[in-house]
Amino acid sequence: MLPNLKKIAWLRETSGVKCLLALKCFATWSVFDFMSEYMDGSTSSSLYEVRLGHEKFSGETHAYSVAYADHEIDQVLECSDKIIFNSIGQLTKFSHASRGHIRGLRVNPGVSTSDFDLADPARPFSRLGEHDPIAIDGVADQISGLMFHNNCENESFERFDEMLTLIEDRFGAVILKMDWVSLGGGIHFTGPDYPLDHLATRLKTFAETFGIQVYLEPGEAAITGAATLEVTVLDTMYNGKNLAIVDSSIEAHMLDLLIYREPAKISPNTGEEEWMICGKSCLAGDIFGEFRFSAPLKAGDRLSFQDAAGYTMVKKNWFNGVKMPGIAIRELDGSTRMVRDFDYTDFAAALS
Ligand SMILES: *Cc1c(COP(=O)(O)O)cnc(C)c1O
């Protein structure tokens, strides 16, 4: 995690942007103290996330939700420094409740970098944010900021730059009336070849041109490569391919692999032996992927799935009653500390 956080800290210092951890993909609060040394605070997508950020992540706390319920709004306001509404309807509905609070509105610029419809905020008929500059201008006096979140796993600075220019052209007049703008998450600026200096310059120019404080809301960029899922082989079989069954499950522990039809990552993934790694749930397609090894796998072997921090711990579930993986922290000195383990009582407690 540290290399990512150092890049985030450099970007803040060089460009003047503030970086808030988006808790959506990673809400492992045991490491929030460490992360908060490199970041300005946290942002959220629900009442429980904003409360967690408020209680556990020092610095600023932004609240956002696709829709707030009447019974949530007071606590959301108590837990946040800023509240960002998803629609003009919600802004209007809660205008009295939120008076005196710093308020913003999510804007949907109609362009994005997602090539997977399910995760594309700019998909046709999207509910994620207001899109009409004239309508947004009509409520500009009630808000002091805007939030755009239209990048998704975007590794290309050029594409980011292009889309920011579109945002400037389409929404520049209303941005000029604002004090702050959040550009959301999804910018993979902690990747190995990302031109971080270009990003810093672009963000600084954007901030100066419009006289605003710029925020970024990195989630995945902060935690890329920062965790592994450690599993043990329980059994091996052969059915036209070498199969290894492990004490975990994609449906229960790495749900995104199932949703987005992607394989897990194993490193170095070389050698003569080819094996399909399978989960232990009853789902026939519960398969982590096919990988290469230097020797045949056998029961008791330990395997390590790489890059397992994002959308795992927040999406774990009790499907099939498969024991959840514990959460352990590897400290900077290399020592490991178990911070959470799960047992039967957690399974039973999650049900009734
Ligand atoms: C998902 C999300 C983020 C974080 O996105 P990453 O891809 O994890 O960087 C930030 N802001 C909003 C509004 C989001 O929905």
Distance between the termini: 37 Å
The molecules bound to the chains, other than polymers, are: pyridoxal-5'-phosphate
Determine Rg (CA atoms, Å).
Answer: 22 Å
Overall tally of structural domains: 2
Number of helices: 12
Q: Largest beta sheet: what is the strand line-up?
A: 1-2-3-4-5-6-7-8
CATH class of the largest domain, named Alpha Beta
Low-confidence parts lasting 5 or more residues at pLDDT below 50? none
- How does CATH name the architecture of the largest domain? Alpha-Beta Barrel
Secondary structure tally: strands: 15
Hey, roughly how much beta strand do the residues contain?
A: 15-25%
**Main beta-sheet strand count, sense and barrel state:** 8 strands, parallel, barrel
For this structure, the quaternary state is single chain
Q: How are the elements arranged and paired?
A:
Elements: H1 2-15, E1 18-22, H2 32-36, E2 41-43, H3 47-56, E3 60-64, H4 73-79, E4 82-85, H5 88-93, E5 102-107, H6 133-138, E6 145-148, H7 157-175, E7 180-182, H8 196-210, E8 213-216, H9 220-223, E9 229-238, E10 242-246, H10 250-253, H11 255-260, E11 273-278, E12 287-293, E13 302-305, E14 327-330, E15 336-340, H12 344-349
Parallel strand pairs: 1-2, 1-8, 2-3, 3-4, 4-5, 5-6, 6-7, 7-8, 10-11
Antiparallel strand pairs: 9-10, 9-13, 11-12, 14-15
Helix pairs in contact: 1-8, 3-4, 7-8
The structure holds pyridoxal-5'-phosphate.
InterPro entries: Ala_racemase/Decarboxylase_C (IPR009006), De-COase2_C (IPR022643), Nsp_de-COase (IPR005730), PLP-binding_barrel (IPR029066)
GO molecular function, one term: diaminopimelate decarboxylase activity
Protein name: Carboxynorspermidine/carboxyspermidine decarboxylase
